[in-house]
């Protein structure tokens, strides 16, 4: 009886083979939509990546705008104070310092020829304080440094050394009833040539009563 059972199962092998072929055909048929789904997913991911790259290309420049602190009551921006200069220092300039735009900049030329650039401001009669910061603007020749000296009525009161790495040297000067503020700036290190835009800038600097 056992032999009979085995002999009866042997012819079923071809049918098993046929069934396997059918199953293989079904598996292949089901794989086609799966492959299409995978391909669609890859295409969508590629499109997203392209959008990210395009977005990066349209990114804003590194320079940002700075907002100055509110001007104290009765104060005046330094560039609004009457002044006399051989090279037109003292005017308002639109520059940036270490990638940040200066909201209210007063230009200060630099003596690149070995002699200082000089400007004299006629201080308001009620002036008591000058406050702000001094910096080298972006785009100056590499390796240069400036020495800046401030005088009140011909008496030296402050001096700073400024280079292209400074974000701004803070300054606060008590005018002590002085009538004139004189600024002298000279090249202390490196080489430079005259430019139409001053290398130095008084950043958001004001004169207050």
Distance between the termini: 122 Å
Number of helices: 2
Can you summarize the main beta sheet? Answer: 6 strands, antiparallel
Strand content: 25-35%
H and E order: HHEEEEEEEEEEEEEE
Mean pLDDT: 78
| General shape | globular
What secondary-structure arrangement, pairings included, does this model have?
Layout: H1 2-9, H2 12-57, E1 64-65, E2 76-77, E3 83-85, E4 92-93, E5 96-97, E6 100-101, E7 105-108, E8 117-122, E9 129-136, E10 145-152, E11 155-163, E12 169-174, E13 180-189, E14 200-208
Parallel strand pairs: 1-6
Antiparallel strand pairs: 2-14, 3-8, 4-7, 5-6, 7-14, 8-13, 9-12, 9-14, 10-11, 10-13
Textual characterization of the structure:
With 209 residues, the chain is α+β, with helices and mostly antiparallel strands. 26% of the residues lie in helices and 35% in strands. The protein contains two helices and 14 strands. The protein has helices spanning 2-9, 12-57; strands spanning 64-65, 76-77, 83-85, 92-93, 96-97, 100-101, 105-108, 117-122, 129-136, 145-152, 155-163, 169-174, 180-189, 200-208. β5 (96-97) and β6 (100-101) form a beta hairpin.
Summarize the structure.
The chain is of the alpha+beta class and 209 residues long. It is built from two helices and 14 strands; from the N terminus they run ααββββββββββββββ.
């Amino acid at each position: 009886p056992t032999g009979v059972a085995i002999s009866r199962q042997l012819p079923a092998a071809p049918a098993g083979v046929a069934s396997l072929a059918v199953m293989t055909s079904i598996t292949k048929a089901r794989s086609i939509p799966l492959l299409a789904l995978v391909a669609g997913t890859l295409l969508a991911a590629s499109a997203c990546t392209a959008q990210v790259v395009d977005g990066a290309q349209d990114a804003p420049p590194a320079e940002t705008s700075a907002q100055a602190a509110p001007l104290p009551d009765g104060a005046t921006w330094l560039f609004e104070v009457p002044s006399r200069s051989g090279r037109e220092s003292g005017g308002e300039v639109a520059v940036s310092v270490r990638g940040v735009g200066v909201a209210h900049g007063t230009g200060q030329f630099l003596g690149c020829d070995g002699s200082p650039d000089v400007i004299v401001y006629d201080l308001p009669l009620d002036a008591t304080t000058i406050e702000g910061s001094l910096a080298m603007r972006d785009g100056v020749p590499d390796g240069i440094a400036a020495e800046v000296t401030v005088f009140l009525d011909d008496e030296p009161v402050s001096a700073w050394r400024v280079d292209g790495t400074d974000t701004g040297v803070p300054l606060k000067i008590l005018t002590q009833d002085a009538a004139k503020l004189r600024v002298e700036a000279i090249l202390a290190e490196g080489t430079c040539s005259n430019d139409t835009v001053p290398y130095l800038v008084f950043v958001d600097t004001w004169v207050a009563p």
